[in-house]
Design goal:
Elements lengths: L4 E3 L5 E3 L5 H9 L5 H12 L6 E5 L5 H9 L4 E5 L3 H13 L8 E3 L2 E2 L4 E7 L5 E2 L10 H11 L8 E8 L1 H8 L5 E4 L5 H6 L2 H6 L4 E6 L1 H4 L3 H10 L4 E6 L8 E6 L4
Parallel strand pairs: 3-4, 3-10, 4-5, 6-9, 10-11
Antiparallel strand pairs: 1-2, 7-8, 7-9, 11-13, 12-13
Amino acid sequence: MERAIHIFDNGVQVYEDQLWPGQRARYERRNVHEAEEEDVFLRLLGRLPPGGCYVDVGAAIGYYLILARKQAPGLTIHGFEPLERHRASLRQNLELNGLTTNDFIIHSQGLTSFAGRQIFLDRGYSSRLAGDAGKSAPSLSQRWKDLLVTLRLRDSRDKTITIETTTIDEFVRQIDCPIDLLQMDVQGLEVEVLKGATESLKTGAVKTFLIGTHGRALGLKLHEECCDQLRSNGYEIEVDLRDTKDQPDGILVASKGVG
């Protein structure tokens, strides 16, 4: 039996069975993944240099990676996605869109405030790293709980895996070039990822951040914290939308040395 395919208005194709009902309902209003963020994304993409570098943190099934490649064929594109079943869907969608993994650099690590290993909660499109937000590393008690879950000596409501983690600073050192646009969808750990970019924020190694903030859904002031962290390092806030009408996340764009 052939799998049904969903074709977005921008030409990106994904398999219908990868989508959940809330997404399908949103696409009936406007047939793109995130109506408000996509407009911002395309504008930012249009100002990147032809051979620039785009990084998608939380690439999931590959929507923005594919859209970026279609819109800007000359970019170097990195995608971070620690969940294997999302990476499997991503590979399927690349093939569906006439692309291969050779067109991208896909990383199986998670980005956070420290390099090492950490428990990752498998919640589908809401998957995220475990651990105590606001600390540079999980507390001893949290690590002990995570270890018990890993050893199946403690129950968890979530399916968990252990993943490798790295930081923006470490990644910038690895690729040894500036990042023109870094897009982030990390389900409430935005501040933690920025904490791992201390040097990059100071030097402007990441020229522009596009961050989907999850403060509204989590009841936290994450959007404001991200703004403060970026402003304090000399970034100009270009887009500051705490509440959006057509998607669940806020939108924050901040740039340094662009123009």
